[in-house]
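Need the bound structure for AGV, inputs here:
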Amino acid sequence: MKIGTLLFFILMSLPSMASERRHLIIDQDADMDDLAAIAIAHLSKQFQIDAITICPADSLKASAIQITVALVKFLGIKNVQIAASDNEGPNPFPRKWRRESVRMAEIPDLQLPETEFLNFGFSSVPAAKKLAELLSGKVKYEILETGPLSNIADALAINPLIAKNISKIYFMGGALHVPGNVSLPDHDGTAEWNVYNNPSAFSKVLKAGIPLILVSLDATNKVPVTKNFMSALKQQDSYKVSHLFHQIWSVMEAQIGTPNHQTTYFFWDSLTAAFAANSGLASLRPVKIQVLLKGKSEGRTVVDPQGLPVQFVVEPKPDKFQKFILSNLKN
Ligand code: AGV
Ligand code: CA
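Answer from helper R.:
Posting the output first, comments after.
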């Protein structure tokens, strides 16, 4: 084949390759793991990321916006709208964790002057309003949710009809057959933080009938961030994305390889993004659940035959998952 003909076919196939990407909205709360989830979703090449919305839950708002917009610039994600909310949730995350976003904002590659935010898609329209606008059009979206469901619930309150334009939500949250990760004096420890932060938001999304895929602690407990992983990442430090994420995960270095699961850092959001991109990394199982809205088990996700149907991720393949993210970060 002549080189001209070959070039013609390659160029002709480009738009169709791009349009085969699944439309995705990422709603996240700018913890280390959320940033990794954004990178994995983008680098997997499975998605057209149309919007990234920010909830200042496991982060502080100003830093959350800065590091999200800077990451979008760093990764070269094009045509994405970015918006933030003020919804910290009724049960705020520990200050110590929220301040990790401030430490990430000190990483040179995650710095960007505010005057440049607009150039990379940031809008001052509140996140819920932005979501309601986007989801009122003709396009159906999948949502990757790596924080509490506050922004989605607030968008549903603006316009309940948007539910039909959400084809599914991959949600990192809940603990079904394992203990939770909330460790507080008045709590029995059965809840996971993303649900506990705003239990009624989760309940509203569940009741809206949107197909939910839960990546709960049942699955994420199998994928701690290990010292082995960190050294494998260090080995590929000549790739700029690997170099950046080694710095990002180093912010919580003290939580790597600790014996107590309430203080260990896991690939919670990373697994959720990776599974959304590659369904071969785990399996799904149907289950009916309800969420407890008050008392000492507030935010607990309980298996209940009278509850609402969701699917939850089981049997993740840790080795395959680790290879998947390491190869995506080689960029
Ligand atoms: O419960 C998991 C969620 C994920 O979305 N977050 C962290 C991930 O972003 C809360 C959380 C649990 N343990 C933590 C958390 C820890 N040790 N540090 C920071 N955040
Ligand atoms: Ca998160």
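Comments: The pocket of calcium ion (ligand 2) is lined by residues 29, 31, 33-34, 58, 146-147, 269 (CB under 6 Å). Strands lie at 22-28, 47-54, 81-84, 141-145, 166-172, 212-215, 283-291, 301-303, 308-314.
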